[in-house]
Amino acid sequence: LQLHHSGRYTCKGWVESRWSWEPWVESPPVTVTVHGIPVSGVSLSAEPPGGQVALGDNLLLSCVVAAGTGPLSFSWHREGSGTPLGTDPHLELRHVGDNDSGHYHCRVSDGDSVAESVPLNVTVLGEGETRAG
What we know:
Blueprint: E1 7-9, E2 12-16, E3 21-26, E4 30-32, E5 40-47, E6 52-54, E7 59-67, E8 73-78, E9 90-93, E10 102-109, E11 114-116, E12 120-125
Parallel strand pairs: 6-12
Antiparallel strand pairs: 1-4, 2-3, 5-7, 7-9, 8-10, 10-11, 10-12
């Protein structure tokens, strides 16, 4: 169901009895109300996992929403940066450099409610460094 499915519904049909034939008898209307679910359970995943990426490689961040009635809008943010980095459910950082390190989070809105993910610390590994774990 979507929010626009809210409304009044009836059904029509042919009714036949021994005494008469009544075409298109209509039922009493039923009101259907679809309620929106606030956005919640926003989380981040990263590829490579953990947000640790080698200098010059690519990093893909994905924003996952556990619940929320659409349409949803997304925005990506890095700590210390005022402008959003993207507005898709995924954010790809290509050929990462040292200046790409930092805390990233995504923000999701349905127009009424807003929820944010826990920040993910992205670490760009220089030569000779290895991933933790």
